[in-house]
UniProtKB/TrEMBL annotation:
Organism the protein comes from: Ornithinimicrobium faecis
Record's protein name: ABC transporter ATP-binding protein
InterPro entries cross-referenced by the UniProt entry: AAA+_ATPase (IPR003593), ABC_transp_ATP-bind (IPR050319), ABC_transporter-like_ATP-bd (IPR003439), ABC_transporter-like_CS (IPR017871), Oligopep_ABC_C (IPR013563), P-loop_NTPase (IPR027417)
Record has Transport as a keyword: yes
Family classification: Belongs to the ABC transporter superfamily.
Domain of life per record: Bacteria
A GO term, aspect molecular function: ATP binding
Keyword annotations from UniProtKB, A to Z: ATP-binding, Nucleotide-binding, Transport
One Pfam entry name: oligo_HPY
Residue ranges annotated for the ABC transporter domain, each copy included: 9-254, 277-524
Length: 571
C-alpha cells in the first residue's frame, strides 16, 4: 500500500462572519488520509468537525473563509482549483454521504434515476446495468427493480445505501461520511458500517467519518482526531485514543457515552401506583395502507414512570407515539389518559378533535428541534405560545415571567429568551422544546428520538434534565428510541417492538440481563460501544426473527411478558 497521502490538511484555520467580527471555527488543524484507511473526527457540537470535513470538497458555509493553512487532494490545492476542476473534485474525486439520506434524496425522483444522474454529471456510463451493479454493490435487494422506487418507499437504511451508491458511483478516492448512522437503529447501523468497511477495502478509498457516536468510530476508524472548540485535542490510532486517552477532554467524552457493557444495573425506582396512561389492543393503520402499522399495542404507564419503546426502523414505535399524540389514526383499541384532577380522557380522537384539556395534558417533544421551532420567532415566543393557547397566563407580564421560569427549569438563562433558534446549539434547542412542552403542564410527555442528533455530553445532560423533571413534576413519559444504551439509563420499563407488534416487555434490568425473545437479543448484540473493535455480524434486510402471526404475549414471571414465537424462551 502506498504511503503517499490521498488527501492532506495542513495548519487549517477557518473563521466565519458573526456580526461586526469573526469567529474561528477551526484552528491549526492537520491530518492526512491514506488509501484504504479510515480517520474518525469526533467532538461535541460546534467543535468544527463537519466544517473541517467539508473542506475536502472545497466547501465553506456562507461568510466563512480560510485564514491559514492548506487542503490538498492528490497533491492539488482544493481552494485554488478553477471552477471546472472543483466540480470534478466534488462527487468525482471526493464524495460525501450526508447524515440524513431521506433529506438528501430528491423525493419526486426514482432512486435509480438519481444514481443515473450522479453518473451522467461526471460523464460516466449510466445505463441500467451500471445502476443495477451499484445497487448490488451496496447490498440492496432486487437491484434490477428497487431502482424504480421513490425514496419514501424505502426504509431509512435502504435510503442510506442509495446515498452510498451515489457517492461511490464515480469510484472516488476519498469518501466523506458526515454522521451517516445517526438516525439508524442498531441492526441497520451495523449493516451500513459493514458495507462501508467492505467498500473501503474493495475500492481502496480513503475514508473520513464524522460522528458523535464513539462506538461507531471505534469499529470503523483506524485513527481518530478529537476536536474541541475548533482545536485538535488528541490524534492517534483508535485503540490508543479511545482505549487509553491522554487528554481530559477525550476522557470526558468517553465517560459521557451511554453504555450497556460494564454499566451499573439500572436504578429501580418507586413509581406511583396510579395509572396515567392505559392502552389496550391499539391497531393503527395509515390511510390507504394495505396492512396495519401497529397491531394490538398494549401498555400501562404509571404516574412518574418512564416507559421506553424500542425497535428497528419500521417497527412501529414512532407510530405509537403519533397515535397517542393524535397525529396518526387509531383503527381500534382503547387509550385512556388519567389527568391530575382524576379525570379520564379518551385518546382515540385526532388531536384537532380533542378537548383542550386533553391536548394540554399530552405533549410531544420532537426528534429534530430545528424543524419544530419557527426560525423567525424568538425563544420566548415559542415557549409562550402554549401558555396563551391553553390559557395558562392572563397577560404579557405573567407570560414573560413564566417563560423565564421555564427557561431556568431546563437549565437556560434569561438571556436566551430573545434569541432565535439559529443562535442556539442543538442541545439548547432541544431544551427549548422541553420547556415548550412543560409550559402546557402536561400529564404525559411523549419523547420521540429526542437525543438522536446530539453528541454524547449534550445527550447526557438532556437525559439528566428529563429524569429530574420527571421526578420533580411526577410526569409520565413514553420514551421512543432506537438507542438501547440511552434507554438503559432513562427507562423504568421497556417495550420491544418488531414489524408493528410487541415482542417483549419487562422492567429495564430484566430486558438487559435476561432478554427472552431472540429479536431482543439480536438488538442487544448489534450494539457497538466505545472500545469495540469488531462489527456485529448483521444484515439489516434479513428478518432476524420471523414473527408467527398467531403468536401471543405470555407472562414469563414478575411482569416479564414475551411473545411465544418459535425460538423464544418463555420459561
Amino acid at each position: 500500500m502506498t504511503t503517499t497521502p490521498v488527501a492532506e490538511v495542513k495548519g487549517l484555520t477557518v473563521s466565519y462572519q458573526a456580526g461586526a467580527g469573526r469567529v474561528t471555527v477551526a484552528e491549526d488543524i492537520a491530518f492526512t488520509l491514506q488509501a484504504g484507511r479510515t480517520l474518525g473526527l469526533v467532538g461535541e457540537s460546534g467543535s468544527g468537525k463537519s466544517t473541517v470535513a467539508r473542506t475536502l470538497l472545497g466547501h465553506l458555509r456562507d461568510g466563512s473563509q480560510i485564514d491559514a493553512g492548506q487542503v490538498t487532494v492528490l497533491g492539488e490545492d482544493v481552494f485554488a482549483l478553477p471552477g471546472p476542476a472543483l466540480r470534478q473534485l466534488r462527487g468525482g474525486t471526493v464524495s460525501v454521504v450526508a447524515q440524513n439520506a431521506g433529506q438528501a434524496l430528491t423525493p419526486s425522483l426514482r432512486v435509480g434515476a438519481q444514481i443515473r444522474e450522479a453518473l451522467q454529471v461526471h460523464g460516466l456510463p449510466a445505463d441500467s446495468d451500471r445502476v443495477a451493479e451499484l445497487l448490488r454493490l451496496v447490498r440492496l435487494p432486487a437491484p434490477e427493480t428497487i431502482g424504480q422506487r421513490y425514496p419514501h418507499e424505502l426504509s431509512g437504511g435502504q435510503q442510506q445505501r442509495v446515498a452510498i451508491a451515489m457517492a461511490v458511483a464515480t469510484d472516488p478516492q476519498v469518501l466523506v461520511l458526515d454522521e451517516p448512522t445517526t438516525a439508524l437503529d442498531v441492526i441497520t447501523q451495523a449493516a451500513v458500517l459493514s458495507l462501508v468497511n467492505d467498500l473501503r477495502e474493495r475500492l481502496s478509498m480513503a475514508v473520513l467519518i464524522v460522528s458523535h457516536d464513539l462506538g461507531v468510530v471505534s469499529v470503523v476508524a483506524d485513527d481518530v482526531l478529537v476536536l474541541q472548540a475548533g482545536r485538535a485535542v488528541e490524534h492517534g490510532p483508535t485503540l490508543e485514543v479511545l482505549g487509553s486517552p491522554r487528554e481530559d477532554y477525550t476522557r470526558e467524552l468517553l465517560d459521557a457515552a451511554p453504555r450497556i457493557e460494564g454499566a451499573p444495573a439500572p436504578e429501580v425506582r418507586d413509581a406511583h401506583e396510579e395509572l396515567a396512561l392505559q392502552c389496550q389492543g391499539l391497531d393503527v393503520r395509515y390511510p390507504r395502507a394495505p396492512r396495519l402499522a401497529v397491531s394490538d399495542f398494549t401498555v400501562q404507564v404509571r404516574r412518574g414512570e418512564t416507559v421506553a419503546v424500542v425497535g428497528e426502523s419500521g417497527s412501529g414505535k414512532s407510530t405509537v407515539a403519533k397515535a397517542l399524540a393524535g397525529l396518526a389514526p387509531v383503527e381500534q383499541g382503547k387509550a385512556v389518559l388519567r389527568t391530575g384532577d382524576a379525570g379520564l380522557h379518551d385518546l382515540l380522537a385526532p388531536a384537532r378533535a380533542r378537548p383542550v384539556a386533553v391536548r394540554r395534558s399530552v405533549q410531544m417533544i420532537f426528534q429534530n428541534a430545528d424543524l419544530a421551532l419557527n426560525p423567525r420567532r424568538s425563544i420566548a415566543d415559542a415557549i409562550a405560545r402554549p401558555l396563551k393557547v391553553f390559557g395558562r397566563v392572563s397577560g404579557r407580564a405573567e407570560a414573560r415571567a413564566t417563560v423565564l421560569r421555564l427557561l431556568e427549569e431546563v437549565g437556560l438563562g434569561p438571556e436566551f429568551a430573545d434569541r432565535v433558534p439559529a443562535q442556539l446549539s442543538g442541545g439548547q434547542r432541544q431544551r427549548v422544546g422541553i420547556a415548550r412542552a412543560l409550559a402546557a403542564e402536561p400529564t404525559l410527555l411523549i419523547a420521540d428520538e429526542i437525543t438522536t442528533a446530539l453528541d454524547v455530553s449534550v445527550q447526557a445532560s438532556v437525559l439528566d434534565l428529563l429524569a429530574e423533571l420527571r421526578d420533580r413534576r411526577a410526569l409520565s413519559c413514553l420514551f421512543i428510541s432506537h438507542d438501547l444504551a440511552v434507554v438503559r439509563n432513562v427507562a423504568d420499563r421497556i417495550v420491544v417492538m418488531k414489524d408493528g407488534r410487541m415482542v417483549e416487555t419487562a422492567a429495564t434490568a430484566a430486558i438487559f440481563e435476561t432478554p427472552r425473545h431472540p429479536y431482543t437479543r439480536s438488538l442487544l448484540e448489534a450494539v457497538v460501544e466505545p472500545g469495540s473493535t469488531d462489527l456485529p455480524g448483521s444484515d439489516a434486510d434479513a428478518k432476524v426473527v420471523e414473527l408467527d402471526p398467531g403468536a401471543t404475549l405470555i407472562e414469563a414471571g414478575e411482569g416479564h411478558w414475551v411473545r411465544d414465537d418459535e425460538g423464544a424462551v418463555v420459561t
